Amino acid sequence: MSAYTLTKTRFREGVWTGLLVAKQADAAPPEINVTLRDQSVKGVTVTATAEAGRYAVEIPVPIEALGDGVQTFLICDANADVVLESFTLMAGEALGEDIRAEVELLRAELDMLKRAFRRHCLETM
């Protein structure tokens, strides 16, 4: 079990930002490891804030993560070997097919509801 909790605060301009908070005041200094496809992500920063036991975490998205498909980043507490948080990027053709399939399913369900509603209105007249 980790001595920290991590909460996303924003994801903007290719940088995922979060707040790392110690569960106990005497927690060991944090060691954060971020991986993408079992490779460590470089450039991760963990900076102490003005409040004790709170740290700002910044994770830059590497250029090699941008492309077709789904990319999942795992943010781990290296001391406890526990996943604190994760985030996923989806892009390209794989995403387009998923969205098109979902829209088609929603349209079919909407058409079914419209037919059922019209039938109900005709039967109640």
TrEMBL record:
- This chain's protein is named Uncharacterized protein
Domain of life here?
Answer: Bacteria
Query: Organism, per UniProt?
Result: Tropicibacter naphthalenivorans
